[in-house]
Amino acid sequence: MKIVLPGGTGQVGTVLRRALTAAGHEVVVLSRRPAGDGEIPWDGRTLGPWAGAIDGSDVVVNLAGRSVGCRYTPDNLRAMMESRVDSTRVVGRAIAAAARPPRVWLQMSTATVYAHRFDAPHDEATGVIGGTEPGVPGYWGHSVDIATAWEAEQEAADTPHTRKAALRAAMVMSPDRGGVFDVLSRLTRLGLGGPVAGGRQYVSWIHDHDFVRAVGFLVDRDDLSGPVNLCAPAPLPHRDFMRALRGAWGVPVGLPATRWMAEIGAFALRTDTELLLKSRRVVPGRLLDAGFAFDHPEWSPAAADLVRRARGR
Ligand SMILES: NC(=O)c1ccc[n+]([C@@H]2O[C@H](COP(=O)([O-])OP(=O)(O)OC[C@H]3O[C@@H](n4cnc5c(N)ncnc54)[C@H](OP(=O)(O)O)[C@@H]3O)[C@@H](O)[C@H]2O)c1
What we know:
By secondary structure, the chain is α/β, with parallel strands linked by helices. The protein has one domain: Rossmann fold (3-Layer(aba) Sandwich). Helix content is about 40%, strand content about 15%. It is built from 11 helices and 11 strands. The protein has a 7-stranded parallel β-sheet with strand order 3-2-1-4-5-6-10, sandwiched between helices. A two-stranded parallel ribbon has the order 7-9. It has a two-stranded antiparallel ribbon with strand order 8-11. Helix 1 crosses helix 6. The two termini are about 30 Å apart. About 45% of the residues are buried. It binds NADP nicotinamide-adenine-dinucleotide phosphate (NAP). NADP nicotinamide-adenine-dinucleotide phosphate binds next to helix 1, helix 3 and strand 7. InterPro entries: DUF1731 (IPR013549), Epimerase_deHydtase (IPR001509), NAD(P)-bd_dom_sf (IPR036291). This is NAD-dependent epimerase.
């Protein structure tokens, strides 16, 4: 197949591109700064010659968006929103204008769209969209607003010949440098991989191999469209998640951090504590119902596999 990855130069794009290329597909990446073979320029906002790559392709997986690993300043929040909504709109316009539109358009979204919650997991049918839940900082609503606007933009696109699905993905765990697993691993190996703010908050995650398999499953299954949760079926509290990661690295201790220590750490790392403190208890209801079987359903063995690959990097 010919598969186009707008924004495919980042962490998730690296994972997908590697796997899809290895499987023999032709992969075209759209980037604002194309650097190598298979990368072509676009601006993420306006139609241009890049749209020719979409015409005649089989699949589009749009990954573009300003990184959420930043301080949530007004400028950064605006960039997070606009880069997602604008790129989704223009991808939709390119598909609508194509003489031979792709069969499938998978659009990245995020598991963060769901409410901060401990008591029950969110699946697509019964899950509660966040933004109005009590007891959380009001500004956490921005991430939900961004995710819902992002999904609405895809939903609104008039692409009658192209099936659309929104990927409500949890953190994609891969051993690549700079990714979330790498960052958590470095902290863990420094002895800083303890629970944060008590560690009750749930962590949803997906192993990179299952992420790639789930994308392939969604490409193949003509009956699946709309929002789909991409996460392992066993989210777990942050304290257990970090304990398993310490175990995988063979690190006996992890310094616990209070909420205030996390605030200082997040400030130093130019990121936001929402990424650590929001309870994301999300499960892959639709994937499981459709018969998708995870190769890495549980975190401890998944972490062991990722550590083994990171050591061999
Ligand atoms: N990583 C995860 O675990 C995870 C989980 C759930 C959802 N997501 C979402 O999935 C998407 C991909 O994640 P990722 O981790 O691969 O992100 P990433 O590493 O930050 O890469 C995203 C790519 O988007 C492009 N981009 C950045 N700012 C842009 C802008 N203003 N306009 C157009 N393109 C822009 C960049 O490509 P160029 O600089 O080459 O143009 C960048 O490589 C993101 O939208 C993210 O929010 C990620």
